[in-house]
């Protein structure tokens, strides 16, 4: 995770043309490293500036909480956005849409700001088919990724599974970690 945020800091200093290098995270690592995991719908968005960084703040109505303290809403800071005529964008930073539903793997930093773990890796789209069955999906990231242990480049993979399977998996892993 440190690699991901070092990369974000480097991009912030260089500008939007720089590339981002992410630490590849497995689903187990995302569950273990997240301070909160929620299924939620983006209710609204705004932007804020903190030092040299611009963040999009997504206000998320929590539909289900699988890990973390109970709350009906969470504010998620996503690197990038536009404010006062200034625009920043960051490779690897996900984009959310107001009214859309996602599963968020979140972490709270020392500043108290809640962010998506592993940038785009920690955000899964929730889609419901015509029969009412929900699934989660995430496209493979095109950003450069490294294995945290070896530092060697690795390829990201898309993720797709039924929402119920992800819920059971996360809840069982979170429960096992708490024991």
Helices and strands, with pairings:
Elements: H1 2-14, E1 21-23, H2 27-33, E2 36-50, E3 53-67, E4 73-79, E5 81-83, E6 86-88, E7 101-108, E8 114-116, E9 123-128, E10 134-138, E11 144-146, E12 153-154, E13 159-162, H3 163-178
Parallel strand pairs: 1-11
Antiparallel strand pairs: 2-3, 2-7, 3-4, 5-6, 7-8, 7-9, 9-10, 10-13, 11-12
Question: What this model shows, in words?
Answer:
- There is one protein chain.
- This protein has 179 residues and is an alpha+beta fold.
- It has a single domain, classed as OB fold (Dihydrolipoamide Acetyltransferase, E2P) (Beta Barrel), CATH 2.40.50.120.
- Helix content is 20%, strand content 43%.
- Strands 2, 3, 4, 7, 8, 9, 10 and 13 form an 8-stranded antiparallel sheet that branches. A 3-stranded mixed sheet has the order 1-11-12. A two-stranded antiparallel sheet has the order 5-6.
Write a brief caption for the model.
With 179 residues, the protein is of the alpha+beta class. It contains three helices and 13 strands, in the order αβαββββββββββββα.
Throw out a few tags for this protein.
single chain; disordered N terminus; alpha+beta; globular; eight-stranded antiparallel sheet; about 180 residues; 3 helices; OB fold (Dihydrolipoamide Acetyltransferase, E2P)
